[in-house]
Amino acid sequence: MQWTNQLAGQLNWSRDISNREEKQRVADQVAGKVKDKDVIGIGSGSTAFLALQAIAERVNEEGLDVKGIPTSKEAEINCAVLGLATTTLIDSRPDWGFDGADEVDGDRRLIKGRGGAMLREKLVMASAEKTYILADKSKMVERLGEKFAVPIEVDARAIHLVETGLGNLSSVKRVEMRMAEKKDGPVITEGGNIILDVTFEDIPADAESTLKAMPGVVETGLFIGYPVEILTV
Ligand code: 5RP
């Protein structure tokens, strides 16, 4: 018990959160949607954390029977620290979910994955009838790819295959391997894979299927065509 607070401090985004006030206002909107018996997909990242905090507060205060399906280890631990019961996609389906995004365009197309959790995030989003995307103003873009590269999660053994595949796409401008903060090695995802951040000249309409067709590409951070509702301030 003595380390619970430190655990929360380390993993719960108690550290600085950019645009915190706006993110909090968006997060508070989603907490109002929780009903007794809901199974909720729990997103990853700082905005999703603020929403989880607000939801856990309501659930605990009102004694609601609610379960979360976390999209990352971090979200799993946050649920445990905040006292929200969890289940898995194997046992349940989410009634609805919430998550953050790095970019959102006018057609509700998203780039996600700055936290590297896009594999589980996409599984949970694809399983839910609706996902609320919590997007402060800084996330809204005219053109997808305007600010962020598209992250792709790749089995490290496929690095040369994928490098060649990406090299053959005329729309790809730059590819960078995501490195750990200390730059002493690549970021390794929860699935044991690496991340390549792919900058496009213009993201082609078929980018997702083209990338997914490359052997070794496990998932991409393009979230297109899912039933999402954007909550913003
Ligand atoms: C993690 C994500 C996050 O939802 C996205 O990066 C937004 O994060 P934040 O709310 O901290 O700005 O996709 O994989």
Automatic annotation (TrEMBL):
InterPro entries: NagB/RpiA_transferase-like (IPR037171), Ribose5P_isomerase_type_A (IPR004788). The keyword Isomerase applies. Pfam families: Rib_5-P_isom_A. GO terms for molecular function: isomerase activity. It comes from Salimicrobium salexigens. It is an enzyme of class 5 (isomerase). This is Ribose 5-phosphate isomerase A. Keywords: Isomerase. Its EC number is 5.3.1.6.
